[in-house]
Design a protein that fits this description.
Layout (H helix, E strand, L loop, with lengths): L2 H14 L16 H12 L5 H16 L3 H14 L4 H13 L3 H11 L2 H9 L5 H16 L6 H14 L6 E4 L6 H10 L8 H8 L4 E7 L9 E8 L7 H5 L11 E9 L10 H15 L5 E4 L6 H10 L7 H9 L9 H18 L10 H8 L3 E6 L6 H7 L3 E5 L5 H11 L6 H18 L2
Parallel strand pairs: 4-5
Antiparallel strand pairs: 1-2, 2-3, 3-4, 6-7
């Protein structure tokens, strides 16, 4: 049996088992969930046997699930203030290390500097299903962080623990097809974040034909919940639009394909934001496809530009970018100009602006402003081509005025590209992209002088 076939009944079986009962499970009604959770946390931090800790951890997580948003905020502030490291103990440990710079003294200092809440989170993780509950807890924290930046140290603790718990060695790559258990297929439908899956027929069209593949990472502690998945189309040549991939009924015999196209990559768990899976996923999927199809010569994406329209709107308002009348009509109407004769000029103008956006618009970290560009360039891909009419759906028009991008993964250049991007911020791109960006600068200057 495959991992997924074994995992599903095991997970269902574990959900059917009755939880161990103790004083924390049947809390009196007059005690709030927040107070019960505080009591469970205090108990967890005391010395005790593993069996009792598992029961208390399970009860604590159940109480957390019943908290309101304001109570969750209060709980995270409790972790921040009452489960931090003890500054007095840190000073004492550091003084001892200064007196005797031994490995033992260093270890003591290291352990003293660790916030107590990290140990609390480890103990909450003891119970069955605890890992996934903590992932959902971090998702709640990320939502609160927007208005409560003082909670950032709590997020750092989660990130530190998750980086170990979701190490690549624990991840399991599985091929998803039409025979995958329905419970998992339903999650693929729910979590698809790039091109919505309309119904089961649409899902089958993405999984069943011989020129389609889907791969997902799972974690043993998370059960049937995928962490991230990628949808792949096997094509002849590099496609320039997603309509042909999603809507065509003409399927290509897999042995005739020369290009594997990653046209949708979806992160499934918000609570794992910032924990890197994508680079591992793409590299392993490339290896899997190469083993199955020796005829594949190119590995590319067909990716959205989710921030382009927003950036362009801001650039126009600040008067750092000026549009021709035709382009201005197009970006304001958000209607595809199917019948307009000046489409070639409009395409050239928008593609030039997109090239400038991808190469010059920067995030506060100094990396490209576009999140998808950061992802693929950071994984060692190169910026290969910008496609006009790449996605003419309503979402595609709203996000990027219909443009899409091909990022190219050339196996013998991935590491070199990654090093150039991560160390020097170099965006490796095709010469045409650079020419488009230069044309954008010239046309903007000319429009400003009109």
């Amino acid at each position: 049996m495959t991992f997924l076939q074994e995992l599903l009944p095991r997970t269902v079986g574990s959900l059917q088992k009755k939880a161990a009962r103790n004083q924390f499970h049947e809390t009196r009604q007059e005690i709030s969930s927040l107070e019960a959770l505080k009591t469970a946390c205090e108990s967890l931090m005391q010395d005790g046997g593993e069996a009792s800790r598992i029961a208390v951890a399970e009860a604590g997580l159940k109480h957390y699930a019943n908290l309101s948003k304001s109570e969750r905020k209060a709980f995270f502030h409790l972790l921040l203030n009452q489960y931090s490291a003890d500054s007095k103990q840190i000073h004492e440990a550091y003084a001892k290390f200064r007196e005797n710079e031994s490995n033992a003294a260093l270890q003591t200092l290291f352990e003293t500097c660790e916030p107590r809440r990290q140990n609390l989170l480890r103990r909450l993780n003891l119970c069955p299903g605890g890992t996934f509950e903590l992932v959902k807890m971090r998702a709640d924290l990320l939502e609160l962080l927007r208005e409560n930046p003082d909670l950032a140290p709590i997020d750092s603790d989660f990130s530190h623990l998750f980086a170990s718990w979701f190490n690549r060695g624990f991840l399991i790559l599985e091929s998803i097809d039409w025979n995958t258990p329905a419970a998992i297929l339903e999650k693929i439908v729910d979590y698809e974040a790039v091109h919505a899956i309309r119904d089961w027929k649409d899902l089958r069209n993405r999984l069943d034909p011989q020129d389609r593949r889907c791969y997902a990472f799972f974690h043993p502690a998370i059960g049937v919940e995928p962490l991230i998945f990628v949808e792949v189309a096997l094509c002849r040549g590099i496609p320039d639009n997603v309509q042909g991939i999603l809507q065509t009924n003409d399927k290509l015999p897999a042995h005739e394909a020369d290009t594997a196209v990653f046209y949708s990559i979806s992160n499934c768990q918000r609570g794992l934001k910032g924990i890197s899976f994508g680079n591992f996923l793409i590299k392993q999927v490339v290896q899997e496809l190469k083993r199955e199809f020796s005829n594949l010569e190119q590995f590319v994406t067909l990716s959205p530009l989710p921030g382009f329209a927003k950036w362009l709107h801001g650039a126009r308002e600040s008067e750092s970018v000026f549009l021709s009348p035709g382009a201005q009509w197009f970006v304001e109407k958000e209607q595809w100009p199917a019948d307009q004769p000046d489409q070639p000029l409009l395409a050239s103008e928008l593609k030039s602006l997109a090239a400038g956006y991808l190469l010059d618009a920067k995030h506060s970290t100094g990396t490209p402003l576009d999140p998808v560009a950061r992802f693929h360039l950071g994984n060692g891909a190169s910026l290969h081509r910008i496609n006009w009419a790449g996605d003419v759906s309503g979402k595609g028009l709203r996000q990027a005025h219909g443009l899409m991008v091909n990022y190219r993964y050339e196996l013998n250049e991935i590491e070199q590209n990654h090093e150039a991007f991560s160390k020097e911020g170099v965006v490796v791109c095709a010469p045409e992209i650079r020419r488009l960006a230069n044309r954008k600068s010239r046309s903007t200057d000319a429009a400003a002088n009109v």
